[in-house]
Amino acid sequence: MPTAGIIYIQGINVNIKNLHIYRRTTQVFFILLIFSIPVLDILRYDTATRELIVFGQAWSIGLRPDFFIEHDISGATHVALQFFLKAILPWLFILSTFPLLGYFTGRFFCGWMCPEGAFFELADFLTLKLLGRRSLYGKKTNDPETSHDNKFLYAVITAISAIIIPAAGGIALTGFFIAPKTIWSQIINWDFTFGVKAGIIGVSVYMLISLIFVRHALCKYVCSAGLMQMLFGWASPVSLRIHLDAQRINQCTDCRACERVCFMNVKPRLPKKDINCVTCGECITACNKELGAGKGLFNFSAGDSNTKKPVWIPAFAGMTKQDKDT
After folding, report:
1. pLDDT tens across 208-242, in order?
2. How deeply is 250 buried, as exposed, middle or buried, from its count of CB atoms within 10 A (0-12, 13-18, 19+)?
3. What parts of the chain have a pLDDT lower than 70?
């Protein structure tokens, strides 16, 4: 039986109080991993040598030097086999990553690891502190209440973040195509080639625009990795998702804390699963804070555990008629 204050994610015991900390830790770790991959030569394409570098070695299809003069079945078989093993198969593996993640874990990657999603959440937080709402375009019903203290401090943090994050992202992602040593040498000497300058500026401008104006709309409608996880997770009978305990729905206090913490504008209490849910677990933490550790109505589950559709009761009086009909 579950212990009070403990939830289970794919067989791993997780303390509810630390759930938010765990998620932030995985996000920071994955950001550092993405930034480190080209630096450590784990995976990058070097435009100078026109070689794909994998774990420090140039990735080659592995054709014999004399393959082009062999006009027999042995030579053709060698070319076909090497091309399949070194060119087609690796790409099939890479392309299958996010559909497989979606099938088994839903949009867990989006909520717990995606670097861009983490930066969008930071932008939401800073906007909330400065304007009292997450979005630049107006206040939404699920925006949490926040204090208006230290606005100057948050304005400074926002300005610094608007410079450092896009610049760091531009340098890191350009490193996937130009050797990081070359990039840093040019930065130190402040003497840039066109490729380095275009890469850093292009990525920086994209990140700045998406952080200010686009944010989670990109996650919902544009990001191909997110869309693949969304579709395969939606169709999968075993994918990880947030489960509402319909049997105890009468314990809901209608505090709407689960909605206020949701940066994807999902209404967790609706009986139908929302395709935009990124399984972040913030609603789990919020509900346990309201009802007591281990007593929350939400939990992680594999597959659709809603065996009984909840009955709408006065606790849902704060919802609109459209929400109830949904």
Report:
1. 999 999 999 999 999 999 999 999 998 899 999 89
2. exposed
3. 1-17, 62-72, 74-75, 78, 304-326
Tens digit of each residue's pLDDT (9 = 90 or more) over 73-120: 766 776 788 778 877 888 888 889 999 999 999 999 999 999 999 999
Domain assignments of the chain as residue spans, ordered by start:
6-21+238-325, 60-105, 107-228
pTM: 0.84
Residue 319 main-chain phi, psi, to 5 deg? -85, 155
Nearest 10 degrees: Cα torsion 81, 83, 85, 88 = -130
Q: What is the pLDDT of residue 307?
A: 39
**How far is residue 209's CA from residue 133's CA, in Å, rounded to a whole number?**
19
Question: Which residue type sits at 236?
Answer: S
313: Cα within 13 Å, side-chain hemisphere: 13
For residue 161, the one-letter residue type is S
Q: What is the dihedral of CA 283, 289, 294, 296, to 10 degrees?
A: -50
Do the strands 51-54 and 43-46 form a parallel or antiparallel pair, or are they unpaired?
antiparallel
Strand pairing category for 240-244 and 57-59: unpaired
Token output for 273: 């699963």
- The CA distance from 3 to 219, in Å, is 35
79-104: burial string, b at 16+ Cβ within 10 Å, e else: beebeeeeeeeeeeeeeeebbebbbb
Rg (CA), the chain: 24
For the record, the structure tokens of 63 come out as 């054709």
Q: Provide the pLDDT for residue 23.
A: 95
Contacts of 238 (CB under 8 A, 6+ apart): 103, 104, 302, 303
Question: 315 with 250: CB under 8 angstroms?
Answer: yes
Task: Give the Å distances, CA to CA, from 268 to 15, 26, 88, 161, 189.
Answer: 21, 23, 41, 31, 52
Provide CB contacts within 8 A for 311, sequence distance 6+: 249
Residue 112 vs residues 23, 117, 119: alpha-carbon distances, Å: 5, 9, 12
